[in-house]
Amino acid sequence: MKRTRGASGCGDPHNRLADVTIFNSSSRILRILQRIDRYPAQRHRHLSSNESLDPEDWETFRADAHTMLDDMIGYLQHLRDQPLWKPMPVGFRERFDAPLPATPSDLASVHRRFMDEILPYGGGNPHPGFMGWVQGGGTPVGMIAEMLAAGLNANLGGRDHAPIEVERQILRWVRDLVGFPETAQGIFVTGTSIANFIGVLVARTHALGATARRTGVLAGSITAYTSAASHESVTRAMEMSGIGSDALRVIPIDDSGRMQLPALVASIAADRAAGRVPFLIAASAGTVDIGAIDDLSGLADIAEREQTWLHVDGAYGALGMLAPDVAPLLHGIGRADSIAFDFHKWGQVPYDAGFIMVRDGSIQRDTFASSPAYLTHDTRGMAAGDWWPCDYGPDLSRSFRALKTWFTFMVYGSDALGATISRMCALARELARMVEANAELELLAPVQLNIVCFRYRSDDPNPLNIRIVADLQEGGVVAPSLTRVRGEVAIRAAIVNHRTELRDLQSLIRNTLALGRAAEHGESA
Ligand SMILES: *Cc1c(COP(=O)(O)O)cnc(C)c1O
Question: Is the CB of 231 under 6 A from ligand 1?
């Protein structure tokens, strides 16, 4: 009995069993713990004063914190009245080149610096006029949930606590949304880049078994396939996995930006003939340049026939399943083996909140799970819980991304989130109509989802449109970005932010025309 305190060796099943018999009544546990608690008080007086990092004066902290909250709510409430983006003044960056502060500062003064030096120079994505890259706008609800999560400071690697159940709840929701079976597993990750990486690793396990974790992969032995329009993170995933991007076949796209299936079939056949093993098809559900969705059903048929893994990069597109008019475009997504997507894009959850979901979760587990003593899954106490996210991905310490996502679904409801996605696609169609209605503008790609690629017509359009986009971004009202469509520079408006309205699109057209005319005819913009 003397050795009750800390006697249970970590991961030592014999001691654990002994403790179970000792602690078989809770009043007895309490008595023992109380005796232990009295023990150190006298001898270590110099260690027992309050030297924690908590506030000395909680009331001052409370007042400061309320000010910070109010300021941030005010910022979100008045986003439209502020510049979308502005470049940092010359010399400004040097403020962030100070030595490590050894001495304390007031919370309020540090907050003042945030308000003056950081907040005005943000990336612009919360602003209604932001349509540059595929980035979500975030919501006030997500912001507040993130604060709650930080207060709780949960570590979602594993063990037995309610935050883990929240993450599982989200998994069940998205599993049902895309039509995956109950065998499916999935976890939050930073973003689709890492989710694509995990997809490649799980596909490798599917092809070669978990032994590939130890042996690695022989260069050139297994091959993957993706379209010319897929996201760069697919290439990186191949690089990071050690399989190598030389083993990634880039399949040409058709006029609407979708992978050409006959070319895929031919490429697979050529690799088989050369003795290689095709192990993965990485499809896109919403390409980043023009919003194309690969023929997921057709790809599922090919993957089935060829016994290859079908991974879908649905970074923003997959959540289109929430929108009744977008979901049919994603037909076949439920037949994928794994899906990578982000809640921080169309889901409007604040950064970051990516997700990887795998149809047969046991293969995901086989790819990552291991059992060092300090990660022993117990049957009782804090190390219990039968589902530990650290078994399904590379991260051990993990933040509570699920909470801001749970709050977003709970507070807004999936119907409203789906309606937002529908509205973004309708706005994109309207923007395309405005472009087509104007002889000075030219639509460069069909609008299939939420992305519109166009340009100001000119004899030398590429440099002109590059200049227009830079001028628009520095104007701070409406911000598209650049991409290339069939080698031609395009102004790309990706409508991902729930705050974007028709007037922002009108402003985009108006300002593009003014800048284009000024450059072409010397009219003043
Ligand atoms: C944004 C995006 C990615 C990368 O996702 P992150 O969350 O930024 O890592 C991958 N694929 C597509 C199609 C994307 O739009």
Answer: yes
